[in-house]
Design brief:
alpha/beta, 7-stranded parallel beta sheet, 3-stranded antiparallel beta sheet
């Protein structure tokens, strides 16, 4: 964490590429600059101090992969699989992800869940072997992602969407859903404890839970508060008690639900570009670290790239309200002129120049 540490003066040599980092899912290598602090230190300063050395990117992290989690609780990548609960997952190459085929739910009434599934005992996983086999790169902020999460996404995988949505508002099923969410959250808390114990270098966690479609949230605000908020807050509070940050990956147009993430204490949101990030940043940027993006520009026009980089920083990185460069306009991530200008401009601005 940055704290009161004095930032070193800026030097042009920082723009030199000193190494590369593999891109996500086999995409091209990401160039690494000669930064005065590690990308990890800078990312942690975003979340913990809100006073980084330079504007960070979503790419400035590395992901902890756990075989037991991937095989039992996650969605498979690149192949079909069946998870711990007996849910089949089908890999869809064109979408770059896995889905449940649907049509054969594990149960259709949430009251049946204890008869149909059990919660995995994560204490029985071979944590010592996992810790021995895995090496995390100390240059980057280390995160663990709870893909498929513990709440609505998990319920959908078990019940199919229509049944899951109905269970949230059916008085005869709501208590059972809460019971399931409580047990899933307890499992998540145990996982956090184990990960922090065996991988003490972990910096943060990301939990997945999609809350909306292309035009609106899946459920009412009152439903979100009653059915999700208590468990989300318990999970977030526990992660904070461990000294780590927590972000949520939640797809859909859910602008009207973001205040719930804020109230739960979530530190950052991975969002889709169908949301008005500028409006949300203006309202919540001091409480939630947004993964924002610049206005679209011609990446082959150097002057436009420079202008876009400066405008991005000036809008999204006000004092005490830093944002990360996210995926909303992906071309910016790969534009060398934009990337270098954003780095240099943000370094100088954070120095007060």
């Amino acid at each position: 964490m940055n704290g009161l540490q004095k930032k070193p003066a800026y030097s042009k040599r920082e723009l030199l590429t000193v190494d590369t980092k593999p891109g996500f899912f086999g995409s091209g290598d990401i160039p690494l600059m000669d930064t005065p602090v590690s990308y990890r230190e800078n990312m942690n300063a975003h979340y913990f101090d809100k006073d980084p050395w330079f504007t960070a990117s979503i790419r400035d992290t590395t992901s902890l992969q756990l075989k037991d989690y991937n095989e039992n609780l996650s969605r498979p990548h690149g192949h079909d699989a069946v998870d711990f609960f007996g849910v089949p997952w089908k890999w869809v190459e064109s979408a770059g992800g896995s889905i449940t085929p649907g049509g054969n739910p594990t149960f259709t009434d949430a009251n049946e869940w204890r008869d149909k599934i059990s919660i995995p005992d994560v204490d029985k996983w071979d944590w010592e072997a996992a810790a021995k086999d895995y090496k995390m790169d100390p240059r980057f902020s280390r995160i663990f992602t709870f893909l498929n999460g513990f709440w609505f996404e998990r319920l959908i995988s078990l019940m199919d969407f229509e049944n899951a949505a109905m269970a949230l508002i059916d008085p005869d099923q709501q208590d059972a859903v809460k019971d399931l969410f409580g047990e899933m959250t307890n499992m998540g808390i145990k996982l956090v404890d184990k990960i922090c114990e065996y991988f003490p270098g972990i910096d943060g966690f990301t939990v997945h839970d999609d809350w909306g479609a292309q035009k609106a949230p899946f459920f009412a605000e009152s439903t979100a508060y009653e059915m999700f908020f208590p468990y989300m807050k318990d999970f977030v509070d526990h992660i904070h008690s461990k000294g780590r940050y927590i972000t949520i990956h939640s797809c859909g147009k859910i602008e009207d639900r973001v205040h719930i993430f804020v109230e739960a204490g979530i530190d950052g949101w991975e969002m889709m570009n169908i949301n008005d990030v500028r409006k949300l940043y203006t309202e919540f940027g001091d409480k939630l670290c947004f993964q924002a993006w610049p206005h679209p520009f011609d990446v082959n026009d150097d002057a436009a790239a420079v202008e876009a980089a400066r405008e991005f920083f000036d809008f999204f990185c006000k004092p005490g309200k830093p944002s990360l460069l996210g995926m909303g306009f992906r071309e910016a991530l790969d534009c060398r002129v934009f990337r270098e200008e954003l780095y240099e401009y943000s370094r100088k601005k954070y120095l007060g120049l």
